[in-house]
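Kindly inspect what follows.
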Amino acid sequence: MDLHSGLAYWIVKNKLYDYFNPLRDDYAVDVAIIGSGITGALVAHELCAAGIPCAVFDKRTIATGSTAASTSQLQYEIDVPLCEMIDDVGERIAVAAYHASLQSISDMEKVFDATRVRPDFKRVPSIFLASNRRGLRLLEREYEIRKKHRLPVDFLNNDALFATHRINGYGALKNNEAAQMDCYKAATGLLKHHLANGGLSLFSHTDVMDYQQTRGGYELLTDAGRRVRCKYMVIAAGFEAGKFLPEQVMDLTSTYALISQPVDPAQLWPERSLIWETAKPYFYMRTTPDNRMMIGGEDVPFRNPERRDRLLRWKIKRLEKQFNAIYPKIQFTTDMAWCGTFSSTKDGLPFIGHWPGRKRMFFALGYGGNGITFSMIAAQVIRNKLMGVKDEREQVFGFERRDL
């Protein structure tokens, strides 16, 4: 399936990592990672840093699946507000999930510092706008529960919102712990780093079609008839992980994104914050280092790629209108537009860890709008599991919570 279509900005901005290395012979490795996007790259990094030999397999050109279509925003805030998530999964799990997401942003920054990969990682504030009076009441509840659990947050009333961010709205929550980056540059940079430093093998254009459990792990069968023997598997293939799952655990959604022509930096909004809203589906926006504006949203349930793609032209107009409602004095001229498919869960949390009964098959499924921060968590949890280190986040993000 085509995971995205249109002109994805990151593929245009960066030189394509034109790596071609299909698996041509049978192969053996300790850990086989399926998927070369940001999730697979972070898992590979954590395993290589721990001295665990691994190999990444992808049926496409490296990192050209969902990672190429990501808007690459990093927030500790999860698609489901904390006050609502507590009702869904309980206070202990919900609060732990939010704190883990907060920590993951700093952990990712440390990864880039240690590897000297430079994916335009930049700390910026996050502004969570009330879309209407109902949204304002939600933010008032959310503010209190975040303060109770010592999560970074400030409340901006309508006057403060206009004075500090030039937005004429009902109010907002603000924190200074968010970040943004170039997801494609991060994924390819980490993979290149570990290829150069040993411990990692990378196979492109190699589709794992089937697998069977063995006494010591798994044997994988590729589309070219090659066999891969491994002690452990890590599935980091997003919603395409479905063929490895005994049952469906996610919903598929079509989403749309635009990027503007470059503008004078003086025209951009204050602090170049990440901005999103309480409406569902929510609209969101960020800037780029070359002074463009990136906006997205207009999510609809996914049916098929053809229907998703036919809606693109109409969605462009709707997204431009939503931007103009927030900043009517800033000229947004669309330069590129794309649409993609992503997965989400009912409680807003990812699925990380092994499926019950399959202790050598790990899943790193960072579903939802926080996929990148969830991917950092997944990489650490899986590394710890392989090293015999207890990680309490397994209980927060594991498959067992489906029964809650």
